[in-house]
User: What shape does this take?
Amino acid sequence: MKISIPYTPRQAFLPFHNTEKRFSVLVCHRRAGKTVSVINHIIKNVLRCPLPNPRGIFVAPSFAQAKDISWAYLKQYTRGIPGTEYHEAELRCTLPTGAVIRLYGAENPDRLRGIYADIAGIDEPASMDLSIWESVIRPALSDRGGKAVFIGTPFGEDAFFDIYQNALTDPDWFHMKLKASESGILSQEELAAAKKIMTPEAYEREYEVSFSATFPGAYYAREVEAAEDEGRVKKVNRDENLDTYAVLDLGMDDATSIWIFQLYANEWRFLKFYENKGKSLDHYITYLKNLGYPLETVFLPHDAKVRELGVGKSRYQLFLDRGFNAEVLPKTAIADGINAVRLAFPRMWFDAEGCKQGIKALRNYRSDYNSKDRVLKMKPRHDWSSHGADAMRYAVMSMNEYFSASQSDWDEPISRANAGTFV
Assistant: This one.
């Protein structure tokens, strides 16, 4: 059967369509046509797949987004194939060859469990929980050697940034970064018009695909940039003559984040950042036990003294039972904590490798931005960056609560016996 698809690839996407590599990541400016290219890439691959009952999937951040955008493209480019059937409720397209293409929303990963796929498209992965890739989509590709394509536009150094950075050095990955100033897809007049009404940071993100451009509502992005510019992100060794502390943001069904730090004079030295999810409290206690050095105090969030019905003990008590000196922090307003972090930032030093993920979380922590009204919402946006940023806020509040002395004491080592302050 000879099948023609009414799709003419844009010149910029030809290298992607021609690659033989199994995995691809496309970082593209707005209106470049990345969704159209991937939908057609999936159609072509399932039609040419030699295995029985080929299957392609396309995963958007939400089912509604998949329906509003990608479903229309899928029908547009398969409508001319005789015998094609569409199932609107499931966003499923069945081709006359027996191949099936189906669209999904990442908010319901259970719909994907147990399936197989010969090719998967993942749209705007930074807007979804990427465990869906690690625990659901990637395994679905295994037995048939399936391919995967990630597409998106940058919004900070997030999970999509990690995927792109990995692709730069992994020989199994094709990578492409498509800037509006270089692609030729949008006219210079259109780009000039966009520049007039957009902030420089927004334009750099949306059209020049800059991962490092600051975005509206970023709480600590400028502070992180200043720390890097001033050389305060470097190799920071633990000093055996100073006490070492840990502060935790304890998640229940969410991620738990840990900062490990030391204090000396007016320097606040962050040695490590650790985060995980789906683990029991014992996992994090064991991590702290295995650091290889003692902790003077472990600081816990304000609700850590609440007893859990399943175990009959509080998380605070569980730390005490494992031999830690633990302190529970008082509840404070989030806005006050954010301001305290900003004030303390000029005195912070970070180990570049040990704190890599934590620094990334601080850079990307932000409030939601209402683009229609051009106003920031009052509360921080809850996403992957929140946990590390919350733990940092607790770290600063722990200092305010437990390390209070006059500024004249800053020239001495800071410990519980000889405390100093940064605020």
Observations:
- Residues 212 and 312 are 46 Å apart (CA to CA).
- The chain has two domains: 11-206, 221-411.
